[in-house]
Write a structure and sequence with these properties.
By secondary structure, this protein is α/β, with parallel strands linked by helices. It is built from 28 helices and 19 strands. It folds into four domains: 258 residues, 2-enoyl-CoA Hydratase, Chain A, domain 1 (Alpha-Beta Complex); 178 residues, Rossmann fold; 107 residues, Orthogonal Bundle (N-(1-d-carboxylethyl)-l-norvaline Dehydrogenase, domain 2), CATH 1.10.1040.10; 107 residues, N-(1-d-carboxylethyl)-l-norvaline Dehydrogenase, domain 2, CATH 1.10.1040.10. Strands 12-11-10-13-14-15-16-17 form an eight-stranded mixed beta sheet, sandwiched between helices. The radius of gyration is 29 Å and the shape is globular. It binds ligand L6W4SP4V and nicotinamide-adenine-dinucleotide. The site of ligand L6W4SP4V has 29 residues, from strand 5, helix 3, helix 10 and helix 11. GO terms for molecular function: (3S)-3-hydroxyacyl-CoA dehydrogenase (NAD+) activity; delta(3)-delta(2)-enoyl-CoA isomerase activity; enoyl-CoA hydratase activity; NAD+ binding. InterPro entries: 3-OHacyl-CoA_DH_CS, 3-OHacyl-CoA_DH_NAD-bd, 3HC_DH_C, 6-PGluconate_DH-like_C_sf, ClpP/crotonase-like_dom_sf, Enoyl-CoA_hyd/isom_CS, Enoyl-CoA_hydra/iso, NAD(P)-bd_dom_sf.
Length: 719
């Protein structure tokens, strides 16, 4: 809807009304068409102001409408009619003007923004392009390079940057509507020809071809297979090379291809899933809307290694006071320097003062006595963590939340070391903790809803996508990673190379394949875990027995590399070779290839040809199968939780929507059939055996993802 009133005698004020973001639904578009017509036909009205209710101009087209039959007046002619009006129209921008919202403002003759407003064309992040004239008007207004930057990245700019770029005409710290009304009065009756952006010639840089070639190459590289950024460049090129009307035709044509694409569906699913995961629930019925978090002002971090340092930075940047505890003097000194450096660099980037004085360092754990919440990040050693939790239970004041950053250990077992297990949850950050967006909040059977709510709220404040998950070895992300990595190892045994496996996964859209990722994070990490699980045995015999552990197929390849001191990038050798320890450029390693040949010969394995499809099916379907088991076990409340964990924590390409969404796109029947096929070929690999939830979903006609919860509920009620 849009509300109409006449203010200050001669200004028609149109207010968009569609909470929470005034999205341009059919009703809002109809409202705009009607009220603009009314203002233009009223002789008392000399100029018009368009604003949005509740401090937000407009969040763009209504994304929820995209999946349905779109009725109501289309945006393009609506905006064109505003631009063609014979009375000045001023956009009063508060909060956000995004996507179609900014395109509407670009159709107005003037734009006035509040200093705190954010503007942008984020359609590319939804698998689309700005198709209400945005790709044609913006380059005409601010030039091709700046428009390409905004349109291909979808980044939001501040009002100050928008003013500098020339997107807005004025910025105010006071009431935007008042300023816009005053301004509208001042321009009433003035000629408008020079204010219609569609009539501007598009500035043509002299090196146009070189510019577009360069941008296209950069965009293709960073898009990792996403099609929308490429279409955005093509549309802007049309603005630079063709008259406006033809450019608009090109914009429409490119949009038509994107609009119905699987990638647009995936990206729009991610948009809503990202928001849905904050509405968490636990199997005992506790929920986000009935659980009250407690405020956290002061926190402590125990252990200042890789993770503890990043967590300390993230907490301080959020405005909390932090007590950082590290037992080793040398580590403490190094950590102080590293944390200060990270804070200073972050502050410089954001143009604020570094939060150095929010942190106090100590070697004594007694220093945490009066904090609201502790995050333990010592070595991944259950004995050590148990001791730390016992100490915390006796030192901290009653009511302090005790959290662990363990990657895979039993959170409930740690909780049982304290007097108040209900105050214990996992806060599983990802490295580097001050950068990575994902936080798994792990609840045990005794964690209180308040502890979960508090950790979720703290995560949100830290700018994380926080996902609440149940307690099991590896939680959600690392539990699913195990079968994925296991398949990659088996593929090497059967004839693949690290290069072949990585290429297939990188072409799929992962920033790094399994082996490059493993070299980056260190092969010794998994080795230590496998030793702890009694899997890795030095000097194991050759032949079949060496590849069976605990009754199932096992690949000792990773262990054998570690026995040679090949820990990955840090030692300059791993699945690849590097120029020197710490170097990041992976090169194919002939030693590794002859090692694999020797290994196969020793174990009586005959290498066969493996193609990309097999790599993808075996690695991804094994991972997806474990995702279904996680849903079946109630460890994740829904597929969206798993998908957001993989998109934000594990580099799953967002334009493929996350593993569970991807399974739905491929077809659950097909995933089941391929898992069955591979399980028959490898009966000693339990991860390839399709789980009962997948069978059940296929038997129920492969319902769309938003209906899976009903099937899971039924399955649980029958158990
Ligand atoms: C605006 C925000 C920055 C606000 O952030 P905040 O943190 O305050 O709030 P939330 O993000 O939590 O949001 C609150 C609530 O609102 C929902 N929501 C937000 N934005 C929208 C929206 N645009 N539409 C619908 N719903 C929205 C959000 O989901 C939350 O609710 P929930 O229940 O999920 O918790 C922030 O919200 C934000 O960034 N929003 C998105 C901004 C954006 O991306 N805008 C661009 C939208 S796309 C667009 O505008 C396209 C235009 O270019 C117009 C294109 C013309 C269309 C023509 C179609 C032609 C088709 C031709 C094809 C023909 C094919 C054929 O042949 O058939
Ligand atoms: N590194 C990762 O990528 C990653 C990611 C997610 C979670 N984790 C988990 O985070 C935790 C920490 O991992 P990390 O990689 O930062 O380890 P790390 O080896 O880099 O650091 C651990 C630090 O803890 C300190 N420490 C040991 N005992 C202590 C004690 N009693 N009191 C105070 N400090 C003590 C050590 O001196 C060391 O500085 C582990 O549980 C790990 O599984 C790690």
């Amino acid at each position: 809807m849009a509300k109409y009133s006449r203010v200050s005698g001669s200004v028609g004020l149109i207010t968009l009304q569609n909470p929470p973001v005034n999205a341009l639904s059919a009703a809002v578009r109809q409202g705009i068409v009607d009220t603009v017509e009314r203002a233009l036909s009223d002789p008392k009205v000399k100029s018009v102001v368009i604003c949005g209710q509740n401090g937000i101009f407009c969040g763009g087209a209504d994304i929820k409408e995209f999946g349905s039959n779109m009725s109501g007046p289309p945006l393009v002619p609506m905006i064109h009619a505003i631009e063609a009006a014979n009375k000045p129209v001023v956009a009063a921008i508060e909060g956000s003007a995004l996507g179609g919202g900014l395109e509407l403002a670009l159709g107005c003759h003037y734009r006035i923004a509040h200093s705190k407003a954010r503007l942008g064309l984020p359609e590319v992040t939804l698998g689309l392009l700005p198709a209400a004239g945005g790709t044609q008007r913006l380059p005409r207004l601010i030039g091709v390079p700046a428009a390409l930057d905004l349109i291909t990245t979808g980044r939001h700019v501040t009002a100050a940057e928008a003013l500098q770029l020339g997107v807005v005409d004025q910025v105010t710290d006071h009431s935007t509507v008042d300023a816009a009304v005053k301004f509208a009065q001042s321009v009433a009756g003035k000629p408008l020809d020079a204010r219609r952006i569609s009539t501007y010639p598009c500035p043509r840089p002299s090196d146009l071809d070189a510019l577009f070639e360069g941008v296209m190459e950069k965009v293709r590289q960073s898009a990792r297979g996403a099609i929308a950024p490429v279409a955005c460049v093509q549309a802007v090129r049309a603005a630079a090379t063709q008259p406006y009307t033809q450019g608009m035709e090109r914009e429409k044509e490119l949009m038509a291809t994107l609009f119905t694409s699987g990638q647009a569906r995936a990206l729009q699913y991610c948009f809503f899933a990202q928001r849905a995961v904050s509405r968490w629930s636990m199997p005992n019925g506790a929920r986000w809307d009935t659980s009250k978090p407690r405020p956290v002002h002061k926190a402590a971090v125990i252990g200042l290694g890789t993770m503890g340092r990043g967590i300390t930075v993230a907490l301080a940047q959020t405005g909390l006071s932090v007590i950082a505890v590290e037992t080793q003097e040398k580590q403490l000194m190094e950590a102080k320097q590293a944390v200060s450096g990270m804070l200073e660099r972050g502050a410089k980037r954001r143009g604020v003062a570094p939060a150095l004085d929010r942190i106090s360092y100590s070697r004594d754990i007694q220093a945490v006595a009066d904090v609201d919440l502790v995050i333990e990040a010592v070595f991944e050693d259950m004995g050590l963590k148990k001791k730390v939790f016992q100490q915390l239970a006796s030192i901290c004041r009653p009511g302090t939340f005790l959290c662990t950053n363990t990657s895979a250990l039993d959170v409930d077992h740690l909780a049982s070391q304290t007097h108040n297990p209900e105050l214990v949850v996992g806060m599983h950050f990802f490295a580097p903790a001050h950068v990575m967006k994902l936080l798994e909040v792990v609840y045990g059977p005794r964690s209180s809803p308040q502890a979960v709510a508090t950790a979720m709220q703290l995560g949100k404040k830290m700018g994380k996508i926080s996902v609440a998950v149940g307690n099991c070895p590896g939680f959600v992300g690392n539990r699913m990673l195990k079968p994925y990595m296991e398949q990659a190892f088996f593929l090497l045994e059967e004839g693949a190379t690290p290069e072949l496996v990585d290429r297939a996964l990188e072409e799929f859209g992962f920033p790094m394949g399994v082996f490059r990722m493993s070299d980056l994070s260190g092969l010794d990490v998994g080795w230590r875990v496998r030793k702890g699980d009694g899997l890795s045995e030095p000097g194991a015999p050759s032949g079949q027995p060496a590849r069976i552990r605990q009754g199932r197929r096992y690949s000792p390849l990773g262990d054998l590399l570690c026995e040679q001191g090949r820990f990955g990038q840090k030692t300059g050798r791993g699945w690849y070779q590097y120029n020197k320890p710490g170097s990041r450029v992976a090169r194919s390693d002939p030693w590794l290839h002859s090692f694999l040949e020797g290994y196969r010969a020793r174990h009586g394995l005959v290498a066969r040809r493996i193609d990309n499809q097999e790599v993808l099916e075996r690695c991804l379907y094994a991972l997806i199968n474990e995702g279904f088991r996680i849903l079946e076990d109630g460890i994740a409340a829904g597929p969206e939780d798993i998908d957001m964990i993989y998109v934000f924590g594990y580099g799953w390409p967002r334009h493929r929507g996350g593993p569970m969404f991807y399974a739905g796109m491929v077809g659950l029947g097909k995933v089941l059939e391929r898992l069955e096929h591979y399980h028959q070929a490898h009966p000693d690999v339990p991860y390839l055996k399709p789980c009962s939830l997948l069978w059940r979903l296929v038997a129920s006609g492969s319902p769309p993802l938003h209906k899976w919860r009903e099937v899971i509920k039924k399955l649980h009620s029958q158990l």
